[in-house]
Give the backbone structure.
Amino acid sequence: MKVIDKIALVLIIIGAINWGLIGLFRFNLVELIFGDMTVLARIIYTLVGISGLWGIKLLFED
């Protein structure tokens, strides 16, 4: 597994945990750490979204 694949996987896991916290407890960890839709929070959300798209590629690799 390439380094970029591992980074993407970590970000996907972070995003999944955050969504789980939102769904179960209405608790947004990203907003707690970085603020409500600050530039840094938006960057994190963007990186997680791009990682999700990268994860699609990982599904089809051998």
Remarks:
- Residues 3-59 form one domain.
- Helices lie at 3-25, 29-34, 39-59.
- The first helix runs from residue 3 to 25.
